[in-house]
Write a structure and sequence with these properties.
binds zinc ion; about 25% helix; 3-stranded mixed sheet
Length: about 350
Amino acid sequence: MKDYYEALGVGRDATPEDIKNAFRRLARDTHPDANPDDPSAEARFREIAEAYEVLSDPQRKARYDHGEVFGGGDLFSQFGGLDDILQQFFGGGFGGRRAGPRRGPDVGASVSLTLEEVAVASNREIAFRAPGTCERCNGLGAEPGHDPITCQTCRGAGSVQVARDSFLGRIMTVAPCAQCSGRGQIIEHRCTTCEGEGLVTVERTVPVEVPPGVEDGTRLRLSGRGGAGERGAPPGDLYVEIHVEEDERFQRVGDELHHRVEIGISEAVFGTTVEVPVIDAAPETIDIPAGTQPETVYRLNKKGMPRLRRRGRGDMLVHVGIVIPTDLTNEQSEVLRSYGDLRNERPAERKRGLFRR
Ligand SMILES: [Zn+2]
Ligand SMILES: [Zn+2]
């Protein structure tokens, strides 16, 4: 474990002022922007900043003195980040690197599928609008025949050294060149199609293979299929949101499908057969035995939805409901009342119509 006092080169009895001064001195020497050619400078700076983060806070210092261990990565995410410390001391984070061409933007699109389509792998063409490379200038932003010229301010580097006054005094940092916006090149004659951006919004279609078993709201990420990047920078990603339409026949719960059938009283009593739909196959016949009770559930193995990116599929559950009729004819009514009498049931008396005296 690293010793924070050692890292800052102070004794255990150092005062807050000592600690601050030690950090100020060390930070100036190891600041990454002051050491652009030393790749280990950032790691050393982090160590010093971490030590300062803990020792400059009386509570954390006390916990550290009692043997508590602080994790470096956690510490910064917990207390606002290394960039915050840099902001505090130098008035800027690690922002001084050459800006460089920007990566293309991530683009969102959506596609709607029926439940039946989701039960099998389906290929769809997804159409969307996104920045694409301008064909007139090949993405360079310059009118054909007028090549970009090297920026004189930064001599093509895209970045310049600037002196920054900070808490630590004056230090040299690297900033993007303002003249060329960090490009290193100046375009004198802008491409008339893209106005120098190198990018134009285009209508694109991308084939997408939707894996069987996706859920409503699933987002598929297609790496590198989003918007084009600036001047050869990598493209962004395409995110396709899947919408799965409701199905009248099935209710989906995870990879299970629920289907409901209604049978009559006599069918429940004497048994019957019913035909039920299957999501991706011919209907199946189920034998309902005599004496079936309301809300009996039959399980059809592996007739549900495929498991996303796994083997196998869920089951289909058939819920059997029993219809209590509310539209009996006189004849049916008489039969049922006789049945009630024989069973010693006591149904309510037949209601007389309001106007029949
Ligand atoms: Zn420049
Ligand atoms: Zn262009």
